Amino acid sequence: MQPQEERIGTLVVDNSPLALRAICSFLEDLPGVRIVGTTTDGLEALALAAKLQPDLALLDMHMPA
Q1: What distance, in Å, lies between the first and last C-alpha atoms of the chain?
Q2: Of 65, 55, 2, 32, nearest to 12 (Cα)?
Q3: Which of 23, 28, 53, 63 could crosslink 15 through cysteines, CB 3.0-4.6 Å?
Q4: What are the residue boundaries of the structural domains of the chain, listed by start?
Q5: Cα angle at 22 between 17 and 12, to 5 degrees?
Q6: Spatial distance between the Cα atoms of 58 and 28, rounded to a whole number of angstroms
Q7: 26, 64, 2, 5: which is closest to 38 by C-alpha?
Q8: Which residues are CB-neighbours of 17 under 8 A, at least 6 positions away?
Q9: Angle of CA points 10, 50, 11, to nearest 5°
Q10: What is the CATH number of domain 4-59?
Q11: Which uninterrupted H or E stretch holds 11?
């Protein structure tokens, strides 16, 4: 496993809890990825992005408003 600072800090956002778990399960197996946060809510995603400063945000583009 790579040192934590060399892994891509990722925020995962999907309004479907099942999809969120599946995406996280896939990403956790990748050696270059570190999940720093997850949420099912777009507004919370904005707050988490500001707080956690992820390298990457993986977003569901069809979330309800």
Answers
A1: 38
A2: 55
A3: 63
A4: 4-59
A5: 70
A6: 14
A7: 26
A8: 40
A9: 15
A10: 3.40.50.2300
A11: strand 8-13
Mean pLDDT of the chain: 92
DSSP state of 5: G
Mean pLDDT on 25-49? 96
**CA–CA gap between residue 19 and residue 61 (Å, rounded):** 13
- pLDDT-based confidence at residue 38 (cuts at 50, 70, 90): very high
Polymer length of the chain: 65
Give 1-27 pLDDT, tens digit per residue: 555 558 999 999 999 999 999 999 999
Cβ within 8 Å of residue 40, ≥6 positions away:
13, 14, 15, 16, 17, 20
